[in-house]
TrEMBL record, chains A, B:
Domain Glycerol-3-phosphate dehydrogenase NAD-dependent N-terminal: 7-104
Protein's UniProt keywords contain Metal-binding: no
Opine dehydrogenase domain location: 185-328
Stored SUPFAM superfamilies: 6-phosphogluconate dehydrogenase C-terminal domain-like, NAD(P)-binding Rossmann-fold domains
InterPro entries membership: 6-PGluconate_DH-like_C_sf, 6PGD_dom2, G3P_DH_NAD-dep_N, NAD(P)-bd_dom_sf, Opine/Lysopine_DH, Opine_DH
Annotated transmembrane regions: none
The protein's name in its UniProt record: NAD/NADP octopine/nopaline dehydrogenase family protein
Taxonomic superkingdom: Bacteria
Organism: Fictibacillus fluitans
Keywords: Oxidoreductase
Length: 359, 359
């Protein structure tokens, strides 16, 4: 069996972890970053060192800020960048990808694979690769500086879905050559709609806007998610679950997710969150212009709302949070974000969407 | 000229002030309150004493918790209760009012006169009085206990509008027998849409929900209305002004209102609010279940949104605040509040509404 060659797109926390891990496992890795300075820093030694759950220092096959160099002749393109950049990287990759490659968004947030696939088609990509997305990043990790990464843990299971859907098993099998954690799921709605960040980030940020902009020190989860705010999150979560049902995805609630991810018990979501020891030390931002809004709204709440609209499910609480995010940041996430148009679903009926998702 | 007889509906702060002021001016006053205990307390001496801008102690003609006793044979019915109770008091008064009386809501909030008029018609009131509403309460006052009121000031001008509109001048002329401050305006949209509380109360409360429910001490205006929250208020205010324009009412902005009400200057609404010395000492609530939400949403934001809908003006920011208020308080203010149905405007065209407002 030919040893797979990987592209790693993005030399942030997760990109560092994938690059070192794959190289330690004996795979050839091309590491790309859009930032020439970061690439320059990495090329000084050409090495990445891991500490924590994985230990070792490796030389990376290729470090580059040229996307064509990074992806030509590789088998699997692991995209490990903030979801708001999925569209621009897809556009940049479109001239160079080929139909025997697999793009994997780690993770896709909501609608990542759909958005990337739509861009590849719009760019008239001659030979379209499989586009896969995961529900989460394999690693809990942090890169304190270029060339170093602290890996505090690896998830036991990462779900991967694909477009076309029937390719999920093949994608998972290939990834399993490096990572036993990847497991195929039948629909990208399973990965796309399991967007817990979209539930936990924008609403508490907006409902603590006064505190945040007053630059008050507060514990994001323990002080910021009060009982009424937790109840509001559950309301948004019910909307998400209803959208999932209409799209054939039977999803766990955020409250259930806390149970199996953190092992916490409690009568309410509020009680569970108060019991998550991993949240100790996590403070609220001191600016509203942060990823909890400008990332989780356009690639989380907007596509949730838009998918709901496409299948006749109303999402009034989610919509209200998007609207206030727009006003507070003076942006229009309905247009910037993953609308039905950007997901390639505009004008499609529920039936057509369900067919697409199961093709 | 026959001396007018007044009913005062509501023995709260404003009701105390009207009762003592009118009696001092030599008018006969019937004072009603829904709460039998409060009536009992007031009846012990039958007197009210004023301190501050008005001073004196008077015996009230009649103090009662029977609505028919309070309003039969009076000329002007001054309603001085929270706006969320306008509907229930209208229903209670319907069997006893007559066409030669005038009901004045002090103030009406948004849509008060419309809501009361609609109830009188629904209740098949045989002889329908003029229903008027003001933009504000004449007094700045506080009743520390039954029978006492501290009047810290009187407004220089109170606008009054009526249904039918052409009666505003007659209403103002009658009220001027007691109060020179009342001035007629041509449309209830002038009084109804000048709802500054609807701009200043719900949004900062919701955007400080975390603080409020954490029972944190903060200054409601100075700390609670941060630059981004002030900008969001201005966005809501633009929506309000657009609704006004479409309904023929050219309204001052909240920012202009701060200029002429408090004499503050500033480049932005944020700057102006920071300069209002009257806001010193005003702290945020320690519960989300307070009048800033459960009053100003159903009788402020809901009718603003509904009137906008009737004339084709979108109010997305206002709607988002209503929606989050619904979720946080687990209520449905779209149904409980002053909807087009409750305002008697359901199914009416813009043209029909404009005709009604100018009749």
């Amino acid at each position: 069996m030919k040893k797979l060659i990987f592209s790693i797109i993005g030399a942030g926390n997760g990109g560092h972890a994938f690059a070192v891990h794959l190289t330690l496992l004996g795979f050839k890795v091309n590491l790309y970053d859009v930032d020439p300075e970061r690439v320059q820093e990495l090329k000084i030694t050409g090495k990445i060192r891991a500490e924590g759950a994985l230990k070792g220092e490796v030389s990376i096959n290729l470090i580059t800020n040229k996307i064509n160099e990074a992806i030509v002749n590789t088998d699997i393109i692991m995209v490990v960048i903030p979801s708001v950049y999925h569209a621009s990287i897809a556009k940049a990759m479109a001239p160079y990808v080929s139909g025997d490659q697999i793009i994997v968004l780690n993770p896709g947030a909501t609608g990542g694979a759909l958005e990337v696939m739509n861009i590849l088609k719009e760019e008239e990509c001659s030979s379209i690769p499989v586009v896969a997305e995961t529900n989460t990043l394999l690693y809990a990790c942090r890169s304190p500086r270029s060339g170093e990464v602290l890996i505090s843990g690896l998830k036991e299971k990462v779900c991967v879905a694909a477009l076309p859907s029937r390719k999920a098993t093949q994608v998972a099998n290939l990834l399993n050559q490096a990572f036993p954690q990847f497991q195929p799921v039948s629909s990208i709605m399973m990965t796309s709609l399991e967007n817990v960040n979209a539930m936990l980030h924008p609403a508490p940020t907006i409902l603590n806007a006064g505190r945040i902009e007053s630059q008050e020190v507060f514990r994001y989860y323990f002080d910021g998610v009060t009982p009424s705010i937790a109840a509001l999150i559950e309301q948004m979560d019910n909307e998400r679950l209803e959208v999932g049902k209409a799209l054939g995805a039977n999803l766990p609630s955020v409250s259930d997710w806390y149970g199996y991810s953190y092992g916490v018990q409690g009568e309410s979501l509020y009680d569970k969150i108060q019991g998550v020891t991993a949240y100790e030390g996590i403070q609220g931002s001191t600016s509203l212009n942060n990823r909890y809004l400008f990332e989780d709204i356009p690639t989380g709440l907007v596509p949730l709302s838009e998918l709901g609209k496409a299948v006749g499910i109303e999402t009034p609480t989610i919509n209200a949070i998007v609207e206030l995010g727009n006003t507070l940041l003076k942006r229009n996430f309905w247009e910037e974000g993953r609308s039905l148009k950007r997901l390639g679903l505009e004008g499609k009926s529920s039936t057509q969407i369900l067919e697409l998702l199961s093709s």
